[in-house]
Structure of histidine kinase:
Amino acid sequence: MPLENGEYFMEYRKLEEALERQNKLIRTITENATTALFTMNTEGYCTYMNPAGERMFGYTAEEIASTPLHYLIHSRRPDGSLYPIEECPIDRALPEHTTVRAHEDVFFRKDGSPVPVSCSISPVYENGHPVITVLEVHDLTEQKKHEEAILRNTKNLEILNSIGKSISAEMDLRNILQKVTDASTNLTGAQFGAFFFNTVKTKGESYLLYTLSGATADTFKGFPMPGKTPLFHPTFNGERVIRSDDITMDPHFGHNYHNGMPGGHLPVVSYLAVPVIAKSGAVIGGLFFGHSRPGAFSTEDEKMVSSIASQAAIAIDNAKLFDKVKTANRQNKRLLKIAKQLDDKKNEFMSIASHELKTPVTSIKGYLQIIEKIAKAEEKPILNGFITKAARQVDKLTSLVNDLLDATRIQAGKITYNFTTFNFGDVLEDSISSLRVVNNTHTIEINGDQNIFITADRIRLEQVISNLLSNAVKYSPEADKIILNVNQEEEILKVEIIDFGIGISEHTIPNIFDRYFREIDKNYQFNGLGLGLYISAEIIKGHNGMIWVESEPGMGATFSFTIPVNQTT
């Protein structure tokens, strides 16, 4: 049923009101948007710009509509060169029917300053034909600042890490300080940097110019080194970092010169000073930077140099410690050389003395044998006891002389071995028989198979067994028994000699086989040079074997050794 005129008018009013509400909503959205919005006609002129666009680019609606939009905000490339309109994606979107999303570019404000942006360009169509272009622009200035800050911080961290590795691997103090000065000068963009190293002279503290970057030492020639003046005191005293955008305006500046900067001095305006403090809290020195331009150093520069200063302090401490170690090593080498010379002279003396003693001892033993025969022939038994005692003392002296000779041969690397094949049981029998001649106070219990044929130096092995049995008797004065265990496992011979004597203290065991070592026991007095176990250990080593002891004080001791049953020369 067709509408009456009144009804038609009412419907038309409703449509108009709805359209007005829609347009009002659109205006509200566009005018309050933080994104700049533009519309362009087919000639590239701006037909609409929202308030955000005005704020972003500084043009009024009349100004923006006076010239094709490309020439106002996009006529140049970031490098300043001209941007032809026929290459502009904004201008080409409408005639070429193209839509562009999230296109990053650089636009320019009315005052000529660049604006990093992200923009989207979309043609609007009527009856299939593009009539206007909608341009949406996001200001990326803050985002780019954040990105640049992240990149800068990442780069700085990489540089700081690289510096840390570089100086931590360096042990030369001057090289460390030069690397630190060069790196921190470059990082801060300072025109020059310097490290003043703290030295103490007779009249008190003095800061010595140690390394420079961006200037030569001649620059400072003729000027006194900085001291603990009001300007330098916080740095030299390790109190805090000093950063000034214009040091010439500092009330403490020029305290020593009264008229500010001395003639010929570097033109310092921006000033940065960072103390370098050791782990101990002592001020090692200070890093100082200067620039002729005011405000050259930032908070970031201050943080970076402080970080480098901390790394430098550790590296400097390490370098000083390394110098001390090198000095100690040189001293130790010198002392070791002297000790070796003295040891060589001592060994030479012992060798000569032993040889010289051997001849008269042999003669004395011969004379005693002659006297013994005369005493028997003339039937004077009273002399036999004295002769026997004298012969035992000569045997002891002979044993000591032989030990000294063996010790000097071992030290000189001249001890030799004569490997033959024999029955190890014969060695045990001879060793026990020799012991019973001089001492018959202990019984010796032998366990295990004695009938073992081995290839070794028989005389040297008998020397080891005799020494271990003799010690077992000597160090168990209140016992009367020694156990000797013999065991062969595959190609290894193992011997254990167990006594029930005074034992060995735990702290002594690691040194028991050292040359001339003897444990002191206040309850007992034992004779000897402390060579027997040393010689025995060297003989066992010469047989490619091992020797060790297990003991506790008051519980006796077990000396054990192992050797291969077949020695090879």
In short: The chain is about 45% helix and 20% strand. Confidence is low (pLDDT under 50) at residues 255-264. Residues 418-564 form a domain with the Heat Shock Protein 90 fold (CATH 3.30.565.10). The longest strand covers residues 114-126.
